[in-house]
Amino acid sequence: IGVYHHPSSTKGQAFAEALVPFLAPVAATGKAYRGTLGVAELADTTPPALLIEHEFHDHNDSRPGGADWIRDPKNRTAIAKAYRRFIVDTWGEKVVEPPKPSPQVDALAFRFGSYNAQLARYGGGPIDEDVEFLGDVLKPSVCALQEVSRAARKEIAEELDWLFWRVNDVALAWRKTTYDHGAIIELPLNEAHHGIVGTKLVHRSTGLAFHAFSLHNLPNGALPSSWADARKVEEKLNALAKMLKKVPDTGPVIIGGDFSTKHAVDFMVKRGFKLATPAVQTMDGGKGSVDFCFTRGMEHRTGGAIYATKASDHHGVLAQPLLRGASK
Q1: Which residue, 24, 32, 94, 277, has fewest beta-carbon neighbours within 10 Å?
Q2: In the chain, which residue ranges form alpha helices assigned H by DSSP?
Q3: What is the pTM of this model?
Q4: Under a CB-based contact definition with an 8 Å cutoff, are residues 282 and 240 in contact?
Q5: What tens digit of pLDDT does each residue of 242-261 get?
Q6: Strand positions, DSSP E, the chain
Q7: How far is CA 9 from CA 17, 42, 59, 87, 242, in A?
Q8: What is the pLDDT of residues 33-58, one digit of tens each?
Q9: Cβ contact 77:44 at 8 Å
């Protein structure tokens, strides 16, 4: 084994003299020597540099220095260990591992709307007005809809490229090019227009998943007389508790709907949910604060928003949650 340094480099000479004793025992002939070379590879360096030749003859046999000898894995392993011993003895056991990359954190910011279209029971406005409101004003990628008729669902799906799960006239819709979905989760209440429906949605770009739900609680909770009617409020909160049994106990969740009573806010907060939209009047004429969105396991980018529309006596509500998670 030949160990060469530049003739003008005293540090290179010291480097070579220190290395040779480690390489000699593993050389094919049991010898290693120091030499000098004036090549650019040794001259044009800032730190001291060495050029090391593991010399062997081209006769194809296993004699010391032969090609078969250098091909033998045990001989090459011995040479590698010699370099390691030199490094450890000279500089100590200071092997620096490359830093492990931090897990990349994905974040999903999306718009979640809730809107009682008032189409199934009371006619509401023209369906094209609802489509325009949803597509141009509310602009959600996931939306909870209540009192949405079959004709309305059909037109909304075609115009906005949405998919639906529904129970009675309660529907959950999502942009079909953005999310994959799981099985339907549903519970109809005792009237044709009420209940809860939801599913697990998986965002295609980030792989992040959450459960989303739309609900419509029992009616008439918006009327001032019913706020003072403790029996009526209790009936609505019992119905809400029944619907919440369909919601998974763990994992991120968002729920939007017509809760039919302002008392739903305290009820949901006590059960670990956060209000994601303003607790203000959400019906024409100040008839009540009944339309809300709630989250669990999500952050809120804003306090949410309320949008009035002439297509329904209910306003549309918009939450802007942020879901975080480590990439797989």
Answers
A1: 94
A2: 10-23, 40-43, 67-71, 73-91, 127-132, 150-160, 224-227, 230-244, 264-269
A3: 0.66
A4: no
A5: 999 999 999 999 999 999 99
A6: 2-5, 33-36, 51-53, 105-109, 112-116, 142-146, 162-167, 170-175, 179-181, 185-188, 195-203, 209-216, 253-258, 274-275, 291-296, 299-300, 305-307, 316-319, 321-326
A7: 12, 9, 36, 20, 85
A8: 888 888 888 888 888 888 888 776 55
A9: no
